Amino acid sequence: MADEQQEPTPAPKASSSLVKSLIILGIVILVPAILGLVTFQFVLRPMLGKDSTTQTEFEYDVIPPTAVTLEFQEDQVSVLTDDPNVSSPLLIYQIAMVCKNAQTASLIQDRLPHFRAKILQLHRNRMRSELNDPYMQDTLLRQSRQEANILLRQFDPHGSQEVLDVMYTKFTIFDL
């Protein structure tokens, strides 16, 4: 019976503690390595750009060959200033609209006073600091395009007329 009650040998405990140590060491090394690879794959690689083997494609707003450019005559509006003692400068501008086709240009030409009045309304009574800002100039052009397309839909609700782009051909603030 004395043989049956033997104490456990320390060797299995050593191998058990050795396995635990290897598992903990594996977790300590593998988890950060996997997290690093995942971070590189999904965060850093997209920030660094695409592979050099793939060719990047840029999307441009394509202007069709049937597009017609319609240039408006020069207009001027008064500009507001921060100082009431200074005379109001004048904004002298001229725009051009890129129309989808000749029918659109013809419709705009027929209803030109409506389009000029709407664009004049967008430019009237602006602060000089606003008009000197390039972002504001782009905003005015986008608004002009939107308003022109709204007017086109009012004049011909079932038509396919569209203004593709509006640009300044002249934009000057003239101090008096």
List the helices and strands and how they pair.
Layout: H1 10-48, E1 68-71, E2 75-80, E3 90-99, H2 102-110, H3 112-123, E4 126-127, H4 128-132, H5 134-155, E5 163-174
Parallel strand pairs: 2-4
Antiparallel strand pairs: 1-3, 2-3, 3-5
Helix pairs in contact: 3-5
What does this molecule look like?
The chain has 176 residues and is α+β, with helices and mostly antiparallel strands. The protein has two domains: 10-57; 68-174. It is built from five helices and five strands. Strands 1, 2, 3, 4 and 5 form a five-stranded mixed sheet that branches. The chain is elongated, with a radius of gyration of 35 Å. The mean pLDDT is 85.
* Total helical segments: 5
What's the oligomerization state? single chain
Termini Cα gap? 119 Å
Amount of helix? 40-55%
Give the low-pLDDT segments.
Answer: none
Summarize it.
This protein has 5 helices and 5 strands.
Characteristic key phrases:
single chain, 176 residues, alpha+beta, 2 domains, five-stranded mixed beta sheet, 5 helices, elongated
